[in-house]
């Protein structure tokens, strides 16, 4: 591991610290509830949980503003929540309800929110990268000082589109922030079993892209790296690449018996849990006490309960509308 | 009305669109300095500069995907994928992203993107450079597929494609580029309307793109033989002008579909099925198809020509219906 050495990041005040923890806690509790509802059969299809990786979505999103764009993968509940897509609309989408953020057309893997410039979850590995290149190109051509943040897993690194996209983004100096969530496993294939070079940020550097590896379990490290990177991108200095080293605690999807890794390895990573680490950090600086923690937990539980209620309350899209939104109207 | 080649008509339409709308730009392999592999974009770099005429690396999947992303971001991109053979490298972006985004997002996002490419065989380029796979793309809901066969349509359909809210794929048969004809100015065509190229009462010949010329020649030969053939140019494979096909077959009671693509699972089969579904009672003979031979395209000229529909094979198929 050659994680970029910078001075340890500090939290920008108690309120901000509590906000980061609150967001991570919401994602964790939302995901736990999703798994429970999946087992009850109300969420179907594929469900890919983000538990263990919360520091990345929450940390990285701090560097983005409302005009920026986000492109994500099929494991994108965390990014959607951190971007501000209402939890109820995400849960409703997973139920397949009409009040879901994609009107029940996308499900867990395809969350979209035009208002928040959340350009979706893409379920073909690396398929979102060229889209992000195009969004960044559109911004550049229109003279907008915005950032397109593109999340993808380390499995995408093996795909041709990863290399094509990095090359094109660097060649055209596009305002693109590549966020590689390296959780060490592409489904069940360990990084070392699929890549000849496992230091992924080095691949980005080979395309002349500024790149660094970051501890993806440390929300402050992610936040500060993302802010540094986004600032450079916003200056028009071309793309920036962050390799965020993390771990997925849960199975790849709900139908994965996890034959490919040991319980000891999972336990070891759980010892560096991003929520526990940050909770300890805040307590150590007297920014958090038991009462605060109780409130944060109650808030998260409440938000998740509301989200479930909204999903339960939602109606089904009428089957008569099956073929709507395949084409738009002419002369847009 | 101006006399020009098919190549010039495509170029003029792009030029007109770029002059009228700053959101329109062109990108693809060798569209700039080289002037386009088929010289379609020749001169556009000089007029519009490298920001709007963008040479790309050989990364079909990514520059098509970037076209999708740029369309999402408010632009009106034209992506040139040199030839249909290379579009196979971009299938994922076209099928999984361009075609699905509107529906998958519950109607929040559209992809107003034009993807253009040359298609077809007949130039002795052998098995990897002679495909006619436009029927594959027509299989996919969410995209539109146009196949201009005339100079006027090359211009009109391109301009119409840029007015769409959704991805359009335009297939330009490579043998058509030097074709001369009249280009009508100022007409905005409607995508999804076929054209009646020749009126006739005995049989409906249905073709598109590169097969149209051969079909028209077959119709002329048939006239000498006393068979009065009607010729329909589909122009758009999706949406398909089923109405015009059925109206024609209802008048003529016989139909022959001509296309360069392989017969098995080809687009001709779709047209045939529509006729069965909508005009079965009007038929006096089984619907016939004249398609490409079921073989990877061979290089040798005689073999290649034998693998493609020809006026003679069309005439023979028609004669078999009487």
Summarize the topology:
The complex is a heterodimer of chains A (332) and B (322).
Chain A: H1 14-39, H2 54-61, E1 69-73, H3 77-83, H4 87-95, E2 118-122, H5 128-141, E3 148-153, H6 160-171, E4 176-182, E5 185-186, E6 189-190, H7 191-194, H8 200-206, E7 210-215, H9 219-234, E8 240-245, H10 263-270, H11 274-284, H12 290-313
Parallel strand pairs in A: 1-2, 1-3, 3-4, 4-8, 7-8
Antiparallel strand pairs in A: 5-6
Helix pairs in contact in A: 1-2, 1-3, 1-11, 1-12, 2-3, 2-9, 4-12, 5-6
Chain B: E1 2-5, H1 6-20, E2 24-28, H2 44-48, E3 53-55, H3 60-72, E4 76-83, H4 84-87, H5 91-98, H6 101-104, E5 114-119, H7 134-138, E6 144-146, H8 151-161, E7 168-173, E8 180-183, E9 195-198, E10 203-207, H9 211-224, E11 229-233, E12 236-238, H10 242-252, E13 255-262, H11 267-279, E14 288-292, H12 301-307, H13 311-319
Parallel strand pairs in B: 2-3, 2-4, 4-5, 5-7, 6-7, 10-11, 10-13, 13-14
Antiparallel strand pairs in B: 1-8, 6-12, 9-11
Secondary structure category of chain A = alpha/beta
Please report the two chains with the greatest interface, counting residues with C-beta closer than 8 angstroms to the partner's C-beta: A-B, 47 and 43 residues
- State the major sheet of chain A: 6 strands, parallel
Whole-angstrom Rg of chain A: 19 Å
Fraction in helix of chain A: 40-55%
CATH class of the largest domain in chain B: Alpha Beta
CATH architectural category of the largest domain in chain B: 3-Layer(aba) Sandwich
Count the helices of chain A. How many? 12
The main pleated sheet of chain B reads as: 7 strands, mixed
CATH topology of chain A: Rossmann fold
How are helices and strands ordered from N to C of chain A? Answer: HHEHHEHEHEEEHHEHEHHH
What is the topology, as strand order, of the major beta sheet of chain A? 2-1-3-4-8-7
Shape of chain B: globular
Low-confidence stretches of chain A: none
Distance between the termini of chain A: 50 Å
What's the helix count of chain B? Answer: 13
- Counting helices, strands and paired strands, the structural category of chain B is alpha/beta
Radius of gyration of chain B, taken over Cα atoms and rounded to an integer in Å: 19 Å
């Amino acid at each position: 591991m050659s994680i970029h050495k910078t001075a340890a990041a500090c939290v920008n005040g108690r309120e901000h610290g509590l906000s980061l923890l609150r967001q991570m806690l919401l994602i964790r509790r939302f995901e736990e509830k999703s798994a429970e509802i999946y087992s009850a059969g109300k969420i179907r299809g594929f469900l890919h949980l983000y538990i263990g990786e919360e520091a990345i979505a929450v940390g990285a999103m701090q560097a983005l503003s409302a005009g920026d764009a986000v492109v994500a993968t099929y494991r994108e509940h965390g990014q959607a929540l951190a971007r501000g897509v209402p939890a109820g609309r995400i849960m409703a989408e997973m139920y397949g309800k009409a009040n879901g953020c994609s009107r029940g057309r996308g499900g867990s893997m395809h969350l979209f929110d035009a208002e928040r410039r959340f350009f979706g979850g893409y379920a073909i590995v690396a398929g979102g990268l060229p889209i992000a290149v195009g969004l960044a190109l559109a911004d550049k051509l229109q003279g907008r000082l915005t950032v397109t943040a593109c999340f993808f897993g380390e499995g995408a690194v093996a795909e041709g589109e990863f290399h094509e996209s990095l090359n094109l983004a660097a060649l055209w100096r596009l305002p693109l922030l590549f966020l590689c969530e390296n959780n060490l496993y592409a489904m069940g294939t360990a990084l070392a079993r699929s890549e000849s070079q496992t230091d992924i940020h080095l691949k980005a550097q080979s395309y002349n892209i500024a790149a660094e590896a970051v501890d993806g379990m440390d929300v402050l490290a992610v936040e500060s790296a993302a802010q540094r990177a986004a600032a450079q991108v916003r200056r028009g200095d071309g793309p920036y690449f962050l390799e965020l080293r993390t771990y997925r605690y849960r199975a790849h999807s709900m139908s994965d018996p996890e034959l490919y890794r040991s319980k000891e390895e999972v336990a070891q990573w759980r010892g560096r849990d991003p929520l526990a680490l940050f909770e300890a950090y805040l307590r150590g600086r007297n920014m958090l006490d038991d009462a605060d923690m109780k409130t944060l937990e109650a808030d998260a539980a409440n938000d998740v309960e509301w989200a479930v209620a909204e999903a339960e309350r939602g109606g089904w899209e009428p089957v008569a509308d099956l073929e709507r939104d395949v084409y738009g109207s002419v002369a847009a | 009305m101006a006399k020009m080649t098919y190549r010039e008509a495509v170029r003029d339409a792009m030029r007109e669109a770029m002059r009228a709308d700053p959101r329109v730009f062109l990108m693809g392999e060798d569209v700039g300095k080289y002037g386009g592999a088929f010289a379609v974009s020749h001169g556009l770099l000089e007029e519009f500069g490298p920001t709007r005429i963008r040479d790309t690396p050989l990364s079909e999947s990514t520059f098509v995907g970037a076209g999708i992303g740029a369309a999402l971001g408010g632009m009106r991109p034209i992506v040139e994928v040199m030839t249909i053979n290379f579009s196979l490298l971009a299938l994922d972006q076209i099928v999984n992203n361009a075609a699905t985004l509107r529906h998958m997002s519950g109607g929040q996002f559209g992809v107003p993107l034009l993807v253009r490419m040359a298609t077809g065989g007949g130039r002795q380029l052998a098995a990897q450079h002679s495909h006619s796979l436009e029927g594959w793309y027509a299989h996919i809901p969410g995209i539109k597929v146009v196949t201009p066969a005339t100079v006027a349509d090359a211009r009109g359909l391109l301009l119409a494609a840029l007015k769409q809210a959704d991805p359009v794929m335009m297939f330009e048969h490579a043998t058509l580029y030097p074709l001369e004809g009249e280009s009508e100015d100022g007409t905005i065509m409607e995508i999804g309307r076929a054209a009646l190229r020749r009126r006739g009462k005995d049989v409906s010949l249905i073709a598109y793109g590169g097969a149209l010329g051969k079909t028209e020649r077959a119709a002329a030969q048939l006239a000498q033989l006393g068979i009065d053939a009607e010729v329909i140019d589909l122009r758009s494979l999706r949406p398909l002008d089923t109405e015009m096909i059925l109206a024609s077959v209802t008048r003529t009671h016989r139909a022959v579909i001509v296309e360069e693509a392989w017969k098995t699972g080809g687009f001709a089969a779709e047209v045939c099925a529509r006729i069965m579904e909508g005009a079965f009672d009007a038929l006096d003979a089984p619907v016939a198809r004249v398609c490409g031979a079921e073989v990877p395209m061979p290089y040798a000229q005689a073999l290649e020509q034998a693998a493609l529909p020809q006026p003679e094979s069309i005439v023979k198929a028609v004669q078999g219906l009487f």
